[in-house]
Design a protein that fits this description.
It contains seven helices and 18 strands. The protein is α/β, with parallel strands linked by helices and about 280 residues long. The structure holds flavin-adenine dinucleotide and FE2/S2 (inorganic) cluster.
């Protein structure tokens, strides 16, 4: 399930950096003190962050992994100029943030089980989704997080009370189960006979992982509900420029407003740009 959020609730504000720690190879945990966004953000939503550098005019979209009181927790990977500069920010620096943006994941409690699949840094927004159920019905959720190896598994310190519901996977077998998140899930689908249950699946990760999951559901269980978070390059982040559209059965839809969370059955996969 995903929820539309009234975009008038978004704000633009200055946030102080409370922490910006390296937690893995090229991977960082950024904590921003930003009560006004932390109090309204929902799982799956993102912020648009302006890195304080004159050469970088465009904001960078980043998922809020989870919020705690006045703090926004963000995990990011250094991939280019903006994220590299971001990694040089220190506690006490301030950044300009717009958010919360986009729609959000909502768990469907009428289901028998919810399976959350996070590939690499893509697991970030699923932590908040899983945490939001921890006090309610924790046995209902299984979170599978995959990374290339043990060093790239960065979420254990924040999983806390969820640990019983979490399966870790690595491509090289250096931590947890060996294999891709999608393969671990396919095996679970068979052995736990999930096809016979009412399950909802929520995923965030590389485009190839989402495409493999979509193809699996199309073949094995076309009625299964599979929500996924899509990334597209963004300019305005608030619906004005049409720069982030994806093709859907209802025409083009903006990832920054109608997304980032989509029902995979609504996406025209054959036309989707596979570059991001
Ligand atoms: C809704 C959403 C949530 C995201 N959440 C996270 C997150 O939690 N952690 C994380 O590490 N990354 C996340 N990303 C990807 C992140 O925005 C890019 O990695 C980042 O913008 C790259 O900036 P750069 O300057 O380092 O890279 P460059 O490649 O130098 O960026 C050049 C331009 O392309 C854009 N761009 C490049 N890659 C992406 C991408 N994958 N998605 C969108 N725009 C991109 C940049 O914003 C910039 O405008 C998210 C993207 C979206 C759309
Ligand atoms: S980034 Fe401008 S419409 Fe989405």
């Amino acid at each position: 399930m995903c929820e539309k959020k009234d975009k008038t609730t978004m704000v633009q504000t200055k946030a102080h950096i409370a922490q910006n720690d390296k937690v893995g190879p090229g991977l960082y945990h950024l904590v921003c003190d930003c009560a006004v966004i932390a109090q309204r953000v929902l799982p799956g939503q993102f912020v648009h962050l302006r890195i304080p550098d004159d050469a970088l005019l465009m904001r960078r979209p980043l998922s809020v992994s989870f919020a705690e009181e006045h703090l926004l927790h963000i995990f990011y990977k250094v991939v280019g100029k903006g994220s590299k500069l971001m990694s040089t920010l220190h506690k006490g620096d301030s950044v300009d943030v717009v958010g919360p943006l986009g729609n959000s994941f909502v768990l469907d409690y009428s289901c028998e089980c919810a399976i959350l699949l996070g590939g690499g840094i893509g697991a970030a927004p699923l932590i908040g989704l899983a945490k939001s159920t921890a006090q309610k019905k924790s046995a209902f959720v299984t979170l599978i997080i995959g990374a290339q190896d043990a060093q790239h598994h960065i979420f254990q310190p924040v999983i806390g009370e969820l640990s019983d519901a979490v399966i870790l996977a690595t491509d090289d077998g250096s931590l947890g189960v060996r294999g891709l998140v999608s393969d671990v899930f396919f095996e679970m689908w068979k052995t736990r006979r999930l096809k016979t249950k009412k399950c909802a699946v929520y995923a965030c990760g590389p485009r190839g992982m989402l495409a493999a999951l979509h193809a699996f559901f199309e073949k094995e269980s076309p009625d299964a509900v599979f929500w996924m978070s899509l990334e597209e390059k963004m300019a305005c982040g608030v619906g004005a420029c049409q720069g982030c559209v994806v093709p859907t059965v209802d025409g083009y839809r903006r990832v920054c407003v109608e997304g980032p969370i989509f029902d995979s059955r609504h996406i025209l996969w054959g036309e989707l740009n596979n570059n991001v």
